[in-house]
Amino acid sequence: MQAMGEAVVSRAVAHLASLAAQPSHGDLDAAARCRALSEPVPEHGTTLEPLLDLLFDDLIPRSFTTAGPGYLAYIPGGGVYPAALADFIADTTNRFTGIRAAAPALVQLEATALDWLRDWMQFPATTRGLFTTGGSMATFNAILCARERHLGVDIRRGTMYTSSQAHHCVEKSAKLAGVAHDRVRLIPVDAQHRMRVDALVDAVAADRAAGLTPFMVVSSAGTTNTGAVDPLDAIADVAAREGLWHHVDGAYGACFHLVPDLRPLLAGLPRADSLTLDPHKGMFLPYGTGALLVRDGEALRAVHASTAGYLPENQSEFYDPAQYGPDLSRGFPGLRVWLTLKMFGAARYRAALAEKRALAVWAADQVAAIPGIVLDAAPQLSLFAFHVQAQDLATENAATHAVIDAVTARGKVMLTGCMVDGRALARVCVLSFRTRRAEVELAVTQLREETARIRVAMGLSEGPS
To answer: What is the pLDDT of residue 156?
Structure first.
C-alpha cells in the first residue's frame, strides 16, 4: 500500500508541477482510442505502474486542461491539493456519513463546513443545507422544497419563472421535480443580460389571471453565458409581494460574497429562500463539490426526512445528512471543504477571489480596446463576453469562432464561446487559483494578435491598427 500510494502521489505531483507547460487542451479526436478502451472485464489483474502510465501518459492528456493556469473556458475551478488529500482520507477510512449515528464527529465536520458557507452568505441561523455533486442537484432539491411548500399535491397548477439566460439545469430540474416544461416561464433580459423585473411581474400576473399558481422564481448570481447577475434585491421584493419562493443560482458567482468589498455586486443575495453554490468553482475544489443552502431548514428536512426499522430514530439537535438530502449511501464531500479551509483559512480565499475579479476587469478593458472587438458583457463578476465586428451577423459569428479557435490552438490559453440571440460570443472567465497576471496578459496579447490576423484574412481590415 505504501509503495502504491507513493507511486500515485509521485505521478500526481509531477502532473501538477507541469500544468503551466501542458497544452491548454489535448487531442480530443479520440474516437479510435475510446473504441480500443471498450474491452471485456479482465480475468486476472495487473500491476499498478502500467495503469498509471496509461492514465497519465495517454488518457488524461486527451482532455481539456481544466486545472491549468490558462484555462479561461467555461467556469474554471482548479482543484486544490488538500481536497485530494481529504478524498484519499475519506476513501481509505471509508466511514459511513449518510447518517449521523454512524459517524457523529465526522458528520459534524460537514455541518460545520455548511455553517461556514451559511455565514459567508449572511443567511440566518435557521438555515440548513447539504453538499451535492454540483449545481444541478442543488437546484433540483431547491425546486422540491418550493414545490412542497407552495403546491403540495397540486403540482400541475404551479408555474415557475427564470431568466432566458438561466442555466439549463433549471428547466431540467423542474422536469425532474414534476413541473412540466410548459409551466416554466423564461423571462426576457435587459441589455446587460439580466432578468427584467417588469417582465417577471407581468408574467406572474398573467398566470394568476389564467387560474394558475405562481410558486417560484429562480434568479442567477452569474450566468454561464455572460456572467450576468440578475437584480436580486428587486426580484426578492417581487417574491415577497407575490408569495413566491426565491431561489438564487449562485453556482458561479455566490462565492464572491466571501469578499465584503464585492458584496454590493450581489446585493440581495442573503434574502433568497435558497441558494446554489459550487465550491468546485469559486472555492477551487475538485469537480463534484456543490452545495445548497435553504433559509428555512425545516423546508429541506420536510422533503427528505424519513424513517425505517433499520435506521436510528431521527433527532433534531445535530445535523444529519439523510434528513436533509436524497442520499443514504454517499461519499464524504464535506471533508474536502473542511480540510481545505482549515489549511488555507478564509483570508487567503478572500484575497484570491478579489484578485480574480480585478484581473477580469483589467482584461476586459484591454480586450475592449482591441480594434474590431465589441464588448457585449462587461465583467459583473469575473467573466466577460465579446464578439468580432463585421458587416453582417454571419460574418461576425464566423470571425468570432475563428478567434476563439485560433487563440486556443496556440496551446497556452483556452477560450470558449456561446450563442446569445443568434450571435456568437467569445468568453473569458478568470476563476482558477492558478491563473495570475501573466496568464491574463498572455490571453490579451494573443487575442489582439489573432483578431488582427483574422480580420485581415477575412477582409475585415487592411491590417492591424
So the answer is: 97
What is the model's pLDDT at position 463?
Answer: 44
Splitting the chain (465 residues) into consecutive groups of 10 residues, what average pLDDT does each group show? 98 96 91 93 96 96 95 93 97 95 95 97 97 96 97 96 96 96 98 98 98 98 97 98 98 97 98 98 96 97 87 85 92 96 98 98 98 97 97 97 97 96 97 97 98 95 49
- 383 and 276 share one domain: no
Q: Is 93 exposed, middle or buried (0-12, 13-18, 19+ CB in 10 A)?
A: exposed
Contact 67, 16 (CB under 8 A): yes
Q: How far apart are CA 82 and CA 348, in angstroms?
A: 14
Amino acid at 408: T
Write down which residue in 287, 312, 345 finishes a domain: 345
Question: Across the beta sheet with 416-420, what order do the strands follow?
Answer: 373-377, 383-388, 423-429, 416-420
Q: H-helix or E-strand containing 131? A: strand 128-132
pLDDT for the residue 462: 52
Pairing of strands 213-220, 245-250: parallel
Do both 243 and 285 map to the same domain?
yes
Instruction: Report phi then psi at 251, rounded to 5.
Output: -55, -45
Give SS3 for 79: coil
User: Is there a domain that residue 11 lies in?
Assistant: no
Q: Which of 295, 321, 345 is the last residue of a domain?
A: 345
The whole-number pLDDT of residue 309 equals 82
User: For residues 320 and 323, what is the distance between their CA atoms, to the nearest angstrom?
Assistant: 6
User: How many residues can be counted in the chain?
Assistant: 465
The radius of gyration of the chain's CA atoms, rounded to the nearest angstrom, is: 24
Domain of residue 187 covers: 86-345
> Are 261 and 123 within one domain?
yes
d(CA 416, CA 401): 9
Same domain, 304 and 212: yes
DSSP string, 332-396: -THHHHHHHHHHH-HHHHHHHHHHHHHHHHHHHHHHHTSTTEEEEE--SSSEEEEEE--SSHHHH
Q: Is the pTM of this model over 0.70?
A: yes
Do the beta carbons of residue 236 and residue 224 sit within 8 Å? no
The amino acid occupying position 231 is P
Check whether residue 231 and residue 110 sit in a common domain. Answer: yes
Q: Are 145 and 300 in contact (CB under 8 A)?
A: yes
